[in-house]
Amino acid sequence: MSKTESDVITRKSSLFRRRAAFSLALLFGLLLAGAAMLNHNMRPTLAAMAEARIRSIAARAMNDAILESMGDEDIYTKLISVRENGEKVYMLQANTRNMNILAADCAEAAQNRIAEIGEQGISVPLGTVTGISFLSGKGPGIRVSFTPVGSVQSQFNSDIQASGINQSLYRVNLKLTASVRLILPGVSETIQVSAEAAIAESIIVGDVPEVYTNVANEEDMLNLLPSEKP
User: Fold this and answer.
1) Residue 137 falls within a domain, yes or no?
2) Which of 120, 184, 193, 229 is most deeply buried (CB count within 10 A of its CB)?
3) Distance (Å, whole) CA 193 – CA 114
4) 3-state secondary structure of 7
5) pLDDT at 181
6) 3-class DSSP state for residue 209?
7) C-alpha dihedral over 43, 44, 46, 50, to 10 degrees?
8) Could you tell me if 125 and 132 are in contact, meaning their C-beta atoms sit under 8 angstroms apart?
């Protein structure tokens, strides 16, 4: 082989290597761009799905905790004392100790239920995160795991309203609010979920009581102390 032929082969080999290196670099760049695009499109989808799952878990946990508290048939008498003067109810007074115990027990039960759920997983089809409409819902699933962690706060609300002729309905509601932390790759946010249910109610026959006492909620109508006893 002459020197000229050898130089030609060397140049072709060098050109091939440069083209191969360029092709590999281009392919690597495209893969990185594709991965970045998928990651960008995937975050809001995963966050939305995880948030929906967390809201469902927290709501179910809190509702179950409230339902458990309603199993006591004497719950109303434990929470509210009715003062009467003859046949007339003149004062409704909250038993704040029992209310605080009930609220704490419900909040703890709900928080434990959320913790017991453990690790959760969500799966998003690859086609969905591409952002291409006709590929949505297609392709293999991309699975991400997360563990809901949070705390539950409790609050009592109460109201009294007309319920027929010369009758009033007095209701005590317990509201639980869960603050659950969602942590995913590239996503970190706190989600608040609330559940509220009437845990005690009573029909009062006659005039609406003029005085109510309840220190569980300072903005509630039941925060008036009796100025005098009939």
Assistant:
1) no
2) 193
3) 12
4) helix
5) 82
6) coil
7) 130
8) no
And the tokens for 143? 């699975």
Does residue 225 form part of some domain?
no
How would DSSP label each residue in 144-155?
A: EEE--EEEEEEE
Q: Does 110 reside within a domain?
A: yes
Using the 8-state DSSP alphabet, how is residue 200 labeled? E
Taking the C-alpha atoms of residue 228 and residue 223, their distance in angstroms, rounded to an integer, is 15
Please, which residues have CB within 8 angstroms of residue 166's CB and are 6 or more apart in sequence? 205, 206, 207
190 vs 188, more confident: 190
Tokens of 1: 């082989």
CA angle 21, 26, 27 (to 5 degrees): 100
pLDDT category at 37 given cuts 50, 70, 90 is low
Query: Cα separation of 78 and 172, whole Å?
Result: 12
Burial 39-65 (b: 16+ CB within 10 A, else e): eebbeebbbebbbebbeebbbbbbbeb
Distance CA 199, CA 87 (A): 25
Structural domain total, the chain: 1
d(CA 148, CA 182): 6
Residue 224 placed within a domain = no
Locate 115 and state its tokens.
């913790």
Beta strand 211-213 with 88-94 is parallel
How far apart are alpha carbons 45 and 52 in whole angstroms? 11
> Is residue 87 helix, strand or coil?
coil
Q: Which stretch of 19-23, 33-37, 54-58 has the lowest confidence by average pLDDT? A: 33-37
